[in-house]
Amino acid sequence: MNTTSIFLRLINRTRKIYPINSISFQSAGCRCSSAYAASVSQIAKERETFQDAWKGIIDNLTTNKKFTQLPELGSWVKKVLEYNVKGGKKIRGITTVLAYELFEKPENVTEEMVRLARVAGWCTEMLQAYLIMNDDIMDGSSTRRGVPCWYRMPDVGLGAINDAILVYGSIYEILKIYFGKAKEYADILDIFNEALLYTSMGQHLDYAMAHRNKQDYSLFTTERYYSIVKYKTSYYSIKLPVVLGLILTQNRENAPIEDIEGICFEIGKLFQIQDDFMDCFGNETVTGKKGTDIQEGKCSWLAVNALQRCNDAQRTLFAQNYASKDPDDVASIKRLYEDLQLPKLYKEQEDEIHSGILKKINALPSSTSPAIFFKLLDMIFKRSY
Amino acid sequence: MNTTSIFLRLINRTRKIYPINSISFQSAGCRCSSAYAASVSQIAKERETFQDAWKGIIDNLTTNKKFTQLPELGSWVKKVLEYNVKGGKKIRGITTVLAYELFEKPENVTEEMVRLARVAGWCTEMLQAYLIMNDDIMDGSSTRRGVPCWYRMPDVGLGAINDAILVYGSIYEILKIYFGKAKEYADILDIFNEALLYTSMGQHLDYAMAHRNKQDYSLFTTERYYSIVKYKTSYYSIKLPVVLGLILTQNRENAPIEDIEGICFEIGKLFQIQDDFMDCFGNETVTGKKGTDIQEGKCSWLAVNALQRCNDAQRTLFAQNYASKDPDDVASIKRLYEDLQLPKLYKEQEDEIHSGILKKINALPSSTSPAIFFKLLDMIFKRSY
């Protein structure tokens, strides 16, 4: 830890009230570069403090009675968690903390609640770990966050399915330890359960689209694509952390939950089309994973838009080469995407969705701080990993 | 449905109070054959009524807002649930209902609460479905309950991992629909979460034992075997339904929870050694599944007891042939088990554990009805599937 962060932590320990909400953006129109810089530095600061909280949470989990009866269990769970939860951008975790800080009235933000928001945030990261551990097995992926997927590790194999359940079960044990006596406990459990159910519905749609009758791409429509995205991504990646942060505040009763949800779904769209684009055009050393969407025949943003733009010859080429593991076929699909100028279209759509989100944010009632959504956009807009 | 059960259901509809607790066994010593017959017929009756409740629960689940946005999702989940939850003995589900009826004071048992206990019981059956769907993939099993394992169905494959999550997520959606406003809601969620965590811990121990350095069987001890059983079986198969039934009653505050848990763990032992024995010596047309414990190198009751009884030559034979998929090796292990008279030892130990359980039941404080435990023993003692 560097001296700046020690200094900041000391400050945090000595005051009860965080003035974080004072850095809030009243409208997208007036965001100046210094406000943007302040936002980015706040995110960077939270990322570091957030990271520091991990060790204590894991120690609390693995030294509790359920684990200490058979000590090897604790060390195994620690190993699984450390391998699978480490790395990544921690967008979900940090969003949870910032959502709490920015939705709460400044005078009500306490150090203890920020600490708890970090715990809740780590639980969203663990949910993400659980989902990608399973996803990697189903997609036959090889790397994730720059290292081999867990199921590809020696002595793991399909035992990874159970290791994923250990990660998932640990989320609820942690929630019980830290929130078990809180009045919002059932709401916290509900929001995680909802996220799991919607994500598994979306994953089914995603999997079924990739494993349906090849040659028939009639279902690869924009409308269907965005339905899948809402289910498989927006709930757990965006709505879960945002609403979880809101649940921890004292002013959630009158929050415009449908408006908040609507913005979350739009940000989820942006997030997923970025993911889809990077799966094919991302720099593997930056994204940390090898793309498999073409090989798996996924209904990706690229596939959907290619099909809307291609002529008959290109459509035949697509049908012949998509969903193939042959590197030549994969390369020909990538060339087709380039011929159809999808990278240019991607940039345009990214900007368009971004503008649409800003409009929705500006339409929020004045009683609801929009700051968390700006923070989310700062974290993900134009991201490269 | 036969006329008797229609008659019984009509009776149940027209009265609010169930006199079921009046058929309770005060001590194991005085159990006569007519009491046993009454118990068995009560179990059979509940099994039928329990089965009838399924359709309404699934309809309620799949016609709710989360599913109706994309109708194909509802029909898929229905298909997955029907395939994976059907069949089996329904011990966990029926135990939940009987535990509610037998722990509750007779004057407090209402038709509405019995209906809710059935819903909770079906959720324990869905948890079982979720666990075996994953287990079958990890063990490379071929059949379950007389039909191919779900992941072996055409167009399913590893998508079964996500289908299992759909089943799991549906449990919590059902609990939310039926118990979301109940004061015991968080306790109900907790007991399911606890069951999942312990089971996944047990599954890890089980998997790790089977995938450790072959040849080294020093960890195949009775003590370790029973630790694994407690984690991987007793929590979700016995403690979950028993305590879930108790949670639904109005007299759980003073229940001797540690004593109840202790009996559950002993019944779990009995249940698991039966499972292990049948995996090798059961009649496949009755059990509905092909055993894989020998092939997978599992730390089963048979393996542990064989190693305690074999001479040096037999130990060498065991080490050479155990954990092999070759049918000749599997047959030689089965012969070894017979040479070591494990079927005889099994019958003795089954009786011994049964007697131990009766002692524990009789030591329960008089304020706690022991009837549910007798019912559980009636369902599982000397079972052949």
From TrEMBL, chains A, B:
One of its GO terms (molecular function) is (2E,6E)-farnesyl diphosphate synthase activity. Pathway: Pheromone biosynthesis. Its cofactor is Mg(2+). Keywords: Magnesium, Metal-binding, Transferase. The keyword Transferase applies. It comes from the Eukaryota. GO terms for biological process: farnesyl diphosphate biosynthetic process; pheromone biosynthetic process. PROSITE patterns: POLYPRENYL_SYNTHASE_1, POLYPRENYL_SYNTHASE_2. SUPFAM superfamilies: Terpenoid synthases. Belongs to the FPP/GGPP synthase family. PANTHER family: FARNESYL PYROPHOSPHATE SYNTHASE, FARNESYL-PYROPHOSPHATE SYNTHETASE. This is Farnesyl pyrophosphate synthase. The lineage of its organism: Eukaryota, Metazoa, Ecdysozoa, Arthropoda, Hexapoda. The gene is 100101208.
